[in-house]
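#struct-help
A.M.: can someone run this one for me? Single chain, 488 residues.
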Amino acid sequence: MNLGNTLLNTKAVLVISLFSLLIVDQTKAFAENKSIQSVTEKRPNIVFLLADDLGYGELGAYGQKKIKTPNLDKLATMGMRFTDFYAGNAVCAPSRAVLMTGKHPGHATIRGNQGYYAEQKTWDRVALNKDELTLGELMQNSGYNTAFIGKWHLGVPEDTSTWASARGFDYAVQEQWGQSDEDTTFDEREHWINGQESSSFYDYTKFDNLDEFRTNFAIKFLDKHQQNQETKEQPFFLFMSYRAPHGHEWTVRNDQMYKEYHWPEGERHHATKITLWDQQVGRLLDYLKHIGEFDNTLIVLTSDNGPHNEHSTTSGKHDYKFFNSNGQLTGYKRDLYEGGIRVPHIAVWANKIKPNTESKHIGAFQDFMTTFADVADVKAPSELDGISLLPTYLQKGKQQEHPYLYWEEQRKFDNKPRKSLLRAIRQGNWKAVQVNLDRPIEIYNLENDIDETDNLAKQYPEKVKHFKALFEQSSVPAEHFPFAHTDE
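D.P.: on it. Structure tokens below:
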């Protein structure tokens, strides 16, 4: 046989071998209920939708009767609705810290909206540690094109290296925070793009609400992602940190919605913010369909804590009870009772998550980082406190359970640090709450007392002792939040 024939035969063998491998891959794909196309398709995108102070009972899908949320209710029918899911904490910054680092509140860097700086004897914002991996960095390192749009609340104003743009997000749009939320009006606020000062101002006279303004940036990101040949081959991770229905979004352009109901102005304004936000989520989902990415995208929606009960400077006070914003639950934002921390959680993934399903799995914000690592097919860091939700999402395999969930929140204090710490634990159907370190531990059985009205501490002294031990072992000292470990 001459050299030419040898080469031809070798090529023929290679072609047959490669074809055989392709047939094996296709057969395996069919066996796993996948399409042939899925063998070569890129990894799934992830879109994370975070509301600000949305209560457990403020969506129609979770029992709301008055406020209209048609887009989110439809979304819930397309996937899985969780009934027993929890925020990272009962207030913005510490809750988002759990979400962004995968560490529960007893291990997280940030445990209150402000921390104590001992040398200056002052309270101020605390940033995530530079050496701890963020969710953005995990996804970016995994080959995702990452974007963050909206409220960050995990850095300090004067140091852009603590902002989203420096913590794992290729494209980041966030407003410039003052020393407090009230320093600058939210009606006209400058936004920074990729850590650089921008001429883009939110002007409520031009947009229905702040979330419309920010959704424009999200669509811009998706459009650019699709048009750029390099990024188009990547999956994307889009974190939408919405503003609604936070109490400090004082003004919206649409001032006629719900007028026919003659509700108090503060309540009409609150309902309007939620419905306008619902419209913007619908707009974003429609755009995902428009660019052909909806079916290959895991969409997750939740809220950073329970409903607020705050006064708006322009429209009057909102009472969380008016719309049953926490459903049957007791408490609201800043409480570690169920109303402050149990939140909606909807997950949608076409042809992966079964439509119209419900899960009673007990999970929390620390689970998202581990879950998204699983979805991205990368290994999550071993020091995380989260558990992947993927077995529950896909209804495949055994779902690992948390032995218990722990929360602590540090509030500002003048001279009584023991009274500034709240903590809680859920273990199975049992819940322990301690309002401050000078108050006794309360015990509730959520199976038949979901609204936490029957304190069983006197009937179960052994459980009080058990939960006290869990409280002590669940929290490690934190530089600016030391008061879980004070004897003062």
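A.M.: thanks! Confidence is low (pLDDT under 50) at residues 1-40, 178-184.
D.P.: also worth noting: Residues 144 and 236 are 5 Å apart (CA to CA).
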